Every structure is written in structure tokens, then in C-alpha cells.
Amino acid sequence: MADFTKRIHAFAKLGDFFRLYLRYRLGSSSPNGQTKRFKDFDEVIDKASHKNGWFTPDNIHYALDSWAQILTKESLSEWLSPYTIEKMSTKNVAIIMAGNIPLVGFHDLLAVLITGHKAIIKPSSNDVVLLPFILEVLQDFEPTFKERIEMFSGPLKGFDAVIATGSNNTSRYFEYYFGNKPHIIRKNRNSIAVLKGTETNTQLKALGEDIFRYFGLGCRSVSKLFVPAGYDFTPFFKAIESFEGLKNHHKYANNYDYNKAVYLMSKFPFLDNGFFALKEDKNYASPIGAVFYEYYGSLNEVSNTLNKDKEKLQCIVSENFMPDEVHFGETQRPKLSDYADGVDTVEFLLKT
User: Fold this and answer.
1) pTM of the predicted model as reported, rounded to 2 decimal places
2) Which of 56, 112, 126, 303 could covalently link to 99 via disulfide, CB atoms 3.0 to 4.6 Å apart?
């Protein structure tokens, strides 16, 4: 178990590094020997945000803070306590990462390394700057990881299992090429919120965080609202006014303007507040700058719909509605045990 303990300590140290860096960003003095590395991190984040316009420094810092809160010795130990992680043969696990939000594939990497396997990483072309720097820091904390991490830019080879994240279209490609190996293949999923009309201003503002964080690009981003018949959207629009600054981000603004123009030309009825549109639609996946909504007659009706479509959903935001609901404002703060698509990655890796 000595190696396992070392791996936990390494990731806990990485969490410490994130916390100290974020404090440094707020003006705190950096620990001895860390000033240069923190400045290097500043440069990496700046480079990442220039290479991918969706990766704003604010969103990158938010992602780092999310990981800083859960990469602790206590959280890691609690997460892994239900599993029996004994010394076992090391397998080469290919991780095909998405690139929609910063560090979106980090949980898969963590799971692979913490269970003692080797990670063969194929990063998204949209996210090739941030992760390599973080891996360098991690390898400094635990040098044995240098032999357990490999970055691939070309075709994958020499792997025993695969964890691949993509769209419904790419999943067919993944199934064709990797179906003969142990695998986790993820498809499109969306998150929704169920409103009852009794939500407070605080809850509705928090819902804005669930909608707008990472510009709505993540599978944990709320893309659809279920609202009671006759629902008044005025309190909701008032609560999300603080997100108006999104219209100053050119990529978001371009998408919002385009989708609004499509709705106008198609004569689709929609609600609009100058930076965000609401359109009545039965689909779950809404475009950037818009969220779909659907009226319901009873909560039982919504429950039946969501149970039928559970394979399409990642998070359900509500209050006192469903057992596995997520509180308002917390979709982008998953716990270590909140596995994508509900598939236990650690259990998969222990059986591989």
C-alpha cells in the first residue's frame, strides 16, 4: 500500500499547489521557491486562453479552484475507501479527452493514476496547453508518475483499455475502433433544472451559474428548464442580470447574435434579455446563448419524462424533487464520486 499512499499524497500536494497559486493570484505571498512556478503558471493560463477563446482566465481559475477543494488527503481517502486497491499488474489505459471546458479529462487521469495504471493521454486539440504544465508539477511531487504518463498526438497504440469522451457521432467511431478492448465510451449528455415557481432570488441567481459557467459548454451545464404551466420568467431574468457581462465576450456574443437571428428569421417565439434567449423546445441540447424550456402540468409528469430520458441527462437541478438532484449553483462543483454518465471509473479500472 506504500505506493498507493504516495499517489494520494502526490495529488493532495497538487491540490495544495492549486490553492497556494490561487491565493498568490489574490495577492498573497508565495511560498519559498514557488514564485517562478506561479509566474510560469500565469503564462500558461494566458497562453491557453489565447489558444482557445472559450478558456478564459476566469473559467480556468474556477476549474482550478474546484479541484483545489477536493484534492485533499481527506477527500481522496474518503473517495477511495469503498474500493480495494491492492498491488496489481499495471495496464496501459488510453484516455481520449474532450476539450470543451478546462481540465475536463482530469478526473479520468486521476482515476487511472491513483489505481496504479499508466495513462496514455490523447488530449483534445482545444486543450493542449494547460494539462502538460500541471502534469509537470504532479511529476515533481511524485517522480514515479513520469513512467506512468504518456502524451499521444498521433494514432493510439499499445493500450489495454480505453476511456473515451466525445459526441454521439464520435462514440460510433470509438465503438468501432475500441470495442474489442475494455472501455468506457461517453456520448452527449445534458443537464436540466426543474423549477416549481417558489425559488428564491438566491436560488435563481445560483441557477445562472449552472447555466453560464464555461459558457454552457459542459455536460453539467444546464441547457433546459422545466417550469410549471403559466410560469413567470420575470424573477428569473432579474436574478441573472449579473451575468450580463457575457455579451462582452466576442465568441459568446457572436453565438448569441446568430441564434437570436435564426429565431427571428424562422419566426420562432422566444424570450430575450439582451444577452440570453429562452426558447420553448422539447429538446435538451440548446445552443450557446440560449436555453430551452418546457412547461409541465405536474411534477409526476416531469419525473416520468426524466426517467425515460435518463441516458441523455447528466445533472438534474432542483429542490426536494429527486433523490440524486443537484443543488442550485453546484453543477460545476462535482465531488470525486460524481462519475460522468454514472459509470464508476475506479471500479472499471480495478477490474481491467
Assistant:
1) 0.94
2) 126
